[in-house]
């Protein structure tokens, strides 16, 4: 038991570092960048609040677990913005390999059974093929959009984001897991971008 507890506590101490990883987006008052731990907490709240937007068979408890774990790899890799300069780095093979190595290291701190369980949830989220993961991924994509809308575009001007980029990089993923949610957000995003022309 002491060895197991030591491993669990080592993982929790390591996970604390997620609070030091700054994301591209700003918090709602625009005063500073959001950190990845705040993002994970906010996504968990999104899942609880928007559970009625999930498709049939989605288990919100599993979604919550995925969302709490999904960005721990950023402790090693950092945040890779979806609207990076070329728009490709976010899903590149290089970033995916770095994130997989980070998942091996970070989840590997845990006792074997728990390590395998957490890693399987992380892999499921990344693959976004199960109903739970599809819904979790849709929330992960929509939350930054909502922060930008609440901040009069937030970091969209900083990253030169266009409405078409938002649709192609974000919209289809949100719509896949929560179509009514994307319909609601799309109207507001389109209006914001139209107001910038």
From TrEMBL:
The keyword Metal-binding applies. Keywords: Hydrolase, Metal-binding. GO terms for molecular function: 5'-deoxynucleotidase activity; metal ion binding. SUPFAM superfamilies: HD-domain/PDEase-like. InterPro entries: HD_domain, YfbR/HDDC2. Residues 15-182 form the HD domain. GO terms for cellular component: cytoplasm. PANTHER family: 5'-DEOXYNUCLEOTIDASE HDDC2. This is HD domain-containing protein. It comes from Aliigemmobacter aestuarii. The lineage of its organism: Bacteria, Pseudomonadati, Pseudomonadota, Alphaproteobacteria, Rhodobacterales.
């Amino acid at each position: 038991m002491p060895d197991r507890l030591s491993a669990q506590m080592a993982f929790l101490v390591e996970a604390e570092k997620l609070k030091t990883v700054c994301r591209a987006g700003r918090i709602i008052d625009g005063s500073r960048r959001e950190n990845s731990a705040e993002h994970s907490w906010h996504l968990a709240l999104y899942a609880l609040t928007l559970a009625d937007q999930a498709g049939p068979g989605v288990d919100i408890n599993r979604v919550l677990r995925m969302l709490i774990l999904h960005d721990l790899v950023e402790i090693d890799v950092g945040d890779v913005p979806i609207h990076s300069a070329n728009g490709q780095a976010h899903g590149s093979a290089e970033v995916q390999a770095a994130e997989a190595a980070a998942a091996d290291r970070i989840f590997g701190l845990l006792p074997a059974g728990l390590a395998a369980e957490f890693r399987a949830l992380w892999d499921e989220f990344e693959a976004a093929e199960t109903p739970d993961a599809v819904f979790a991924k849709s929330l992960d994509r929509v939350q930054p959009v909502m922060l930008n809308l609440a901040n009069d575009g937030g970091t969209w001007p900083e990253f030169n984001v266009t409405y078409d980029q938002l649709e192609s990089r974000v919209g289809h993923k949100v719509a896949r897991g929560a179509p009514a949610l994307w319909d609601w957000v799309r109207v507001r995003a389109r209006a914001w971008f139209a107001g910038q022309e």
